[in-house]
Amino acid sequence: MESQNVKGTKDIFNKEAEMFEYVETVMKSIAATYGFKDMRPPLLEHSEVFSRAVGESSDVVRKEMYTFLDKGGRSLTLRPEFTAGIMRLIVQNKLYATEDLPIKAYYHGPVFRYERPQLGRYRQFNQFGVESVGVNSYFHDVEVILLGYITLLNLGFEGLKLKINTLGDDESRTNYKNALKAFFEDKIANMCEDCKQRYEINPLRILDCKVPADQEIVKSAPKMRDYLSKESQIRFNHVLQELEQSGIEYEVDDTLVRGLDYYSETVFEFHFVSDKGVNYGAIGAGGHYDKLVKEMGGPSLEGVGFSFGIERVVSVMQDNNLFEGILSDQSLDAYIIPMDPLYNTNALDVALALRANGYRVEVPYDGGKVASLIKKANRKGARIAIFIGEEEIRSDSLSIKDLKFNKQENIALGDLLTYVDEIFNEHECQCKNEEDKGEQCCCKQKDKE
Ligand code: HAM
Q: Are 397 and 410 in contact (CB under 8 A)?
């Protein structure tokens, strides 16, 4: 049987795994500067958590959830997003009562959606996101947007586009939905099947339709801005003013309604078009919500958050060479070569001593010819090879070869760490003149000045 990964999933390994690690580390460390802390809801939730929160009219709930009955007959779902699970966690653990508000969480991990796989669209993908819950101030919308924007800038995204819109409060949305229903009433019969359902469940969603003929009709539909309550209009203006004040460019897009049902007021997406004109679509997206905590059985608290799709972030960065020169060096420091399997235990002891001091070390316990093991050490980027043979064991010593300068020395076992530390901390001579090395080296003198 040929083993194949499941359609829409992706193996992440080697260099790409380093890229994911790098991106997640940058995202976490910037989120921490805004006061967000790690939160880890389980991957499995009762299906109700998502159907209630994400909403029955969303494509995610209608068509895309990986839902199954477990052996106890419970309906469980692999999370299709994080926000609902984070709200369930906050309510179940009563964090709103025990923590200072707002509760600020960042999260990352795999999510699952049964979508049609295509470029940048997977069935299992990773998200990194934040949620700020419990304080109703438009400043939190602004901070969350700034965090997303600045994170992408830090990763090297230039030409980032922030699309923003408001869905207003309940009153605004009710009026707008009524206006949309009236507008589409005599058109819906000729629109796609999805739109017909959207018309019944949530006509706002029709604005999100990707069918070209339907998009044409949508162009002349009523605009949300004409149905906003005074409060929502003022709130949105404040958000835009603060973004301008912070020097962030944005584009108000009044067809932006988002695909999940829980939003109210501010919604936004980060889009990226490369220098070469490649449109990568939404790299991340989010918005404000006001009923999620209550829906999970908690008090009436508002929140705002966003999630990035990490596969998309990494793929943009790869295509635009944004990883160049920034991935940390993962190569080995030392390769310890036992000259006979008899000395494997001694090699392991030396490896443990070096690892305890932070060195990256491997031992080829399966043996091999010394020449080919040295080649292997070079391929693994090791700076030194350490040989342990009969002579070394007899004299309580080690033979250490500096693979960079092709120099070998025999040192007492007790001097191992001092010797290795010296090699790794050695002054890197810039003058490329072997004679010049040591205390008198011209660049060392320059350092002193
Ligand atoms: P979302 O727009 O559904 O929002 O997903 C956020 C991001 O996940 C998207 O912008 C995209 O980069 C990535 N993404 C979505 N679907 C896929 C896919 N099939 N393959 C690869 N990447 C994908 C949410 O999930 C909300 N929970 C965001 C949020 C947080 N709103 C408030 N707080």
A: yes
Instruction: Give distance in angstroms: CA of 307 to centre of ligand 1.
Output: 6
- Closest ligand 1 atom to residue 121 Cα is 20
Asked whether 83 lines ligand 1 (CB < 6 A), one says yes
Q: Looking at the domain that runs over 14-169+229-319, which CATH code has it been given?
A: 3.30.930.10
Report helix, strand or coil for 83: helix
Per-residue DSSP letter, 121: B
Pocket test of ligand 1: the residue of 9, 121, 291, 307 to mutate, having most ligand atoms within 8 Å of its CB, is 307
Asked if residues 128 and 150 have their Cβ atoms less than 8 Å apart, the reply is no
Measured distance CA(63)–CA(58) in Å, rounded: 8
Match 């700076």 to its residue by tokens: 383
Candidate of 79, 81, 116 to mutate for ligand 1, largest count of ligand atoms within 8 Å of Cβ: 81
Q: Is 286 in the pocket of ligand 1 (CB under 6 A)?
A: yes
3-state secondary structure 206-263: HHHCCCHHHHHHHHCCCCHHHHCCHHHHHHHHHHHHHHHHCCCCCEECCCCCCCCCCE
Pocket of ligand 1 contains residue 282 by CB under 6 Å: yes
**pLDDT score, position 446:** 47
Delimit the CATH 3.30.930.10 region(s) of the chain: 14-169+229-319
What is the residue whose two structure tokens read 């070079």? 378
Atom of ligand 1 nearest to the CA of 308: 7
Q: How much is the pLDDT for 275?
A: 81
Is the N-terminal amide bond of 102 cis, ω within 30° of 0?
Answer: yes
User: What DSSP element (H or E) covers 378?
Assistant: helix 370-379
Question: Which ligand 1 atom is nearest residue 83's CA?
Answer: 27
266 lines ligand 1 (CB under 6 A): no
Query: How many A from CA of 309 to the centre of ligand 1?
Result: 6
Say what the pTM is. 0.90
pLDDT at 48: 95
81 lines ligand 1 (CB under 6 A): yes
For the segment(s) 334-427, the CATH number from 3.40.50.800, 3.40.350.10, 3.40.50.880, 3.10.350.10 is: 3.40.50.800
Spans of the chain below 50 pLDDT: 444, 446-449
**Protein residue with its CA nearest to atom 8 in ligand 1:** 309
Give pLDDT, residue 164.
98
Give span(s): CATH 3.40.50.800, the chain: 334-427
